[in-house]
Amino acid sequence: MKKADCIFCKIANGEIPSRTIYEDEQFRVILDLSPATKGHALILPKEHADNLFELPEDVATDAMKVAKKVGALLRDKLNADGLNLVQNNGAEAGQTVMHFHLHLIPRYKEDGQNINWNPTAPSAEELDTICKQIVE
Ligand code: AMP
Ligand code: ZN
User: Fold this and answer.
1) Would residue 5 be called left, alpha or beta, if left means φ above 0 and alpha means ψ between -120 and 50 degrees?
2) Range of the domain at 26
3) Separation of 75 CA from ligand 1 center, angstroms?
4) pLDDT tens across 106-130, in order?
5) Is residue 1 included in any domain, yes or no?
6) How many domains, in total, are found in the chain?
7) Which of 8, 34, 36, 41 is 20 to 30 A from 115 in CA distance terms?
8) Of the residues 50, 97, 104, which should be mutated to test ligand 1's pocket, given the most ligand atoms within 8 Å of the CB?
9) Is 121 close to ligand 1, i.e. is its CB under 6 Å away?
């Protein structure tokens, strides 16, 4: 289903023009308007889902196949040295457009970007507690 007033629904379904680099029945892949690096692209499912939790399992599987295909295209055509996949869910995680999208960010030597987190140093006991909390 498409969602009214969702900009990525409109882009994915061709109602708003975009710089499309790949399209199939389920997805459109577009260039990000404010790219982190040259070729930064977004995989957009044509069916609306707010985030990964709402995305049907088969669409999630197919999104990764598209990531593999278009990631290789970016690497080969733009001579990228690496590739980050980034996928934010929820405002607290940095999601600003509430239609699932998977970022493909080609990386280049000395591109000046830092797509990372600050590592923390929990104790072994703390890690054990978290592990139990998740598994039990
Ligand atoms: P996120 O923070 O994961 O929700 O990422 C949203 C991304 O969408 C950002 O990188 C924006 O630059 C990008 N973006 C927002 N609107 C558009 C648009 N109309 N066309 C292309 N990219 C967009
Ligand atoms: Zn949408």
Assistant:
1) left
2) 7-135
3) 21
4) 999 999 999 989 999 999 999 999 9
5) no
6) 1
7) 8
8) 97
9) no
C-beta of 87 in contact with ligand 1 (< 6 A): no
SS3 track for the chain:
CCCCCCHHHHHHCCCCCCCEEEECCCEEEEECCCCCCCCCEEEEECCCCCCCCCCCHHHHHHHHHHHHHHHHHHHHHHCCCEEEEECCCCHHHCCCCCCCCEEEEEECCCCCCCCCCCCCCCCHHHHHHHHHHHHC
Examine residue 34 and state whether it is found in any structural domain, yes or no: yes
Q: Is there a domain that residue 86 lies in?
A: yes
pTM of the model: 0.97
Output the CA 67–ligand 1 centroid distance in Å: 17
